Amino acid sequence: WELAQACGHSICVDLDKVHIPDLSKRVCKIMEINPLAAIASGALLLAVDSKDSSRICSSLQQEKIVCVQIGKILKASSKPQVWNISSGSQELLDYPERDEIARLFEL
Q: What's the CA gap between 67 and 36, in Å, rounded?
């Protein structure tokens, strides 16, 4: 959502392709939080021209840095939206009200 709002474009993303490290998955499961709505310290989201994405991913992977193309930028919009295109369907994602980590401190 932050990228969509910052660039003023809607985005489609395949959530099944988002890399979540095993340790993060385990901690999120134990804490009952959604890892896709939690602060991702150490993660970097790149928006690059599609013709450059394979070359950039290959270069990062050579350095043992996980790189996966997870989506694409759509048309400009005064009200950007984020769409999940996993499993061949298209679903509008809800805007997260707050970070999942912050929610833990509200308990």
A: 16
